[in-house]
Structure prediction request, 957 residues.
Amino acid sequence: MGKAELPLHAPGTQVDRGYIGQSVPRPNAARLLQGRGSFIDDLRFPRLAHVAFFRSPYAHAKIKKLDFAKAVKAKGVVAVFDGPTVAEYCTPWVAVLAHLKGIKSPPQHAIAIHRACWQGEAVAAVVAESRSQAEDAVQLIEAEWEELPVVVDMEASLRGDVVIHDEFEDNICFKREHDTGGVDEAFAKADVVVEETFHFGRHTGVCLEGRAILADYNAAEHSLTVYHATQAPHMMQDIFSRHLGIPEGNVRVIAKDVGGSFGIKVHVYADEMATAAISVILRRPVKFVADRLESFLSDIHAREHRVKVRLAASKAGEILAFDMDDLTAIGPYSVYPRTSGIEGNQVVNLTGGPYKHQKYRGRLNVVFTNKNVTCQYRAVGHPIAVALTEGIVDLAAQKLGMDPAEFRRKNLIPDDAYPYTFPSGIKFEKLSHLRTLDKLLGLMNYKSLREEQRTLRAKKIYRGIGLAAMIEVTNPSPAFYGVGGARISAQDGATIRLEPTGMITVMCSVTEQGQGTEAIFAQIAASAVGVSLDKTKIITGDTGVTPYGGGTWASRGAGIGGEAVLQAGRALRSNALDVAAAILKMDKQELDIVGNAVINKLSLEKKMDLAELGRVAYFRPDTLPMDFQSELTVTRHYTPRQYGFTFTNGMQASLVELDPETGFIKLLKHWCVEDSGTLINPMLADEQIRGGVVQGIGAALYEECLYSPEGQLLNGNLADYLVPMSGEMPDIVCSHIETPTMQSQLGAKGIGEAGTAGAPAAVMNAVNDALAPLGARVTAMPFTPERILQALKKV
Amino acid sequence: MEHALDITLTVNGVQVSRRVAPRTHLVDFLRDELGLTGSHIGCEHGVCGACTLRVNGAIVRGCLMLAVQADGCKVDTIEGLSDSGELKDLQKAFHEKNALQCGFCTPGMLMAAQDLVLKNQKPTRDEIREHISGNYCRCTGYQAIVDAIEDVIQTKVTHGKG
Prediction:
């Protein structure tokens, strides 16, 4: 087993951790600040054609007839395609995983054939010389439909009165039950039992850049180059290859600048597959960018859950058991290739996560509906599991008359209990709940806040304080997807080349969507090799260039990609020192590289610049010993394997003020303490957390995809679907604890999803704390003013 | 081109003349006709602010204004204000404080922020938040953006007094 191995360099060099732990600005941000990024829609290609889709106006309907006669004659139109035509070039897919036993889903085509299963599913594609011409022609397509019965409500779907897919007997995509045994006995002997049903509104990612793809098929080479706003270029290379019948080596996926992703851009979308197929059919570059309205209709949604949860406790305040029943609806298809069973599966895994109870039962039903598909969105399952856990924990504390912070302190898994196996079967290497709790309470000055709250209540000012403890999946091993048969890499690779000028070029398979991947790789590589940050160039997001790897998802970039970079950097330093030893005729053990130069490790005397080493190695190798060959490009890979996931932990708190007259909630402040293992760049980590918190606040207070009983999306635009804007957001205070994972030398755990995982729970508990003196309580997110007023019985 | 209109406008200090369809939005004209792709398209219905531009000194949504309406106008984009150096203090502060992640909202955010800087007032943090509340950022949580704008305005005010 590897272990966290910092420092990096010779003692006394003052750079033993190098840039690791420093808040350096991102080198790649400069171009974005000048509007000189390269997002997909910024690329200009000769003979580029544009695709617009004709989408189903119905939630469930047979396509009786599609008439393209007028559309094909419209100005600028190149071609119009239906499902069967595109299917000749692109095979359908079925999104199941072997380790989600019993999961089922029907085949999905790039363009729907015979039947549309949600409003917004593409049923035809128009290709034209400009996007506006393509959209004009879409209006000229004439369709005849036969409406089919619609299943919108998930309880109705579970009952199965109407079954959506003829090939199945029911609407259940996936079900699971986990039981430690002894749950009923624990509830029978409990002094206190609390029960609640929580509802979570279906919402979506709303990346500012819509999904975007530019596919360029070269008929002469039978090769396909895809410029794609994606988080997982190698996964998409495999998918394009297999479903379009092009050898993998002939498919190149390039992800340049990506305008936000959050899990939205890690899935296979039918309209994107159709775009790639159309490039093959037409033998020319073709582009599709989802506009805002079709983003709402076709980007994956997430988190529509109804969860009943019960908690059993002793009168001394000891949690004895959790019992949870989750129902979630995923639309008509499980989404390829990750499946739509994972989110609910995570809820079963994570419920009750921070606590030391031994008895647990979790039930899950994942059902089909005629709404847009759902799948993994930032913090997958965590916001649900954390909110239902922390909500019921607060209710138990209230019933026991205990302070919520002290009730948590009594029940959190102690910091010295690790390694630890949780009742759901997951394993924790090392967590720090109690240190985190102490740090959070100190940071927010909990006692004073409680006193202030009491004082203000006397003046009829209703403030609420909410806490949320959490565990989080990071650095997933192949146990997440690979074991289930998905061709999704759990390992990542990094290549580092020493250039003749003494600079280094790093190529890594983890991608950048703004979270700072390239910045932290530069910090790690520069530190490991011994060069300054300005001598470091990072390349990511190109299957034609980087080593093979999984990309960006599940808080894995720093922990997995970062470790590959660290190991490659160390190997390159070793190889460079071999060259230095040969040039200087010294023992390699006496040498180190610090500050772009080879130094004597003991005297710290500079022996030669790296640029000189590079000059000799590349241009005058004739001066080196006859049997010596320098190797100044190295590649290393890393896969976490000792644990299924490198779990980490954190805790958040929210302070809100309720206006009982209007039902408005004002967010006054938010705090987050997060254990991210080795912290590489605190500034980037803080801003990742803050962005995540704000996304979680959106789920708690504003965001919901509302559907009519006919399955029509009612608020699919940015004016009606509310997202958090700067005016309503609070300042967010972040702090860190560092418990490095001992599985790697870098010791980094993930951080990207922490904010989103915990914020809804903290806000919910704060809102209910504010409502408590008024005898009201809310359990259905988002907590809109209307729902608050309903809880207060004012409407 | 059917019903096309001739327009002449000054974009980033350079006079350009084109024949455009009346329905062409100003931001599409800048991106597709002039290749100025720094102004981004996020919603095309005036909510997200990604296409914020300056027309005759006032910030506007490039998706809510037609190119023909800009006939005879002076239009400034992120590219122009970067090259002229007008945005350099804000860009430096945004960079140092990491007031951007994916960068898709950033050009519009900078245009809105510069509008506030040019007002020569001393806004509170709440007023800064209010001023940029028409610019959607999904990545940052806004706090670093507010910090960066506050920093630039404070430095300017201090220097003004000194």
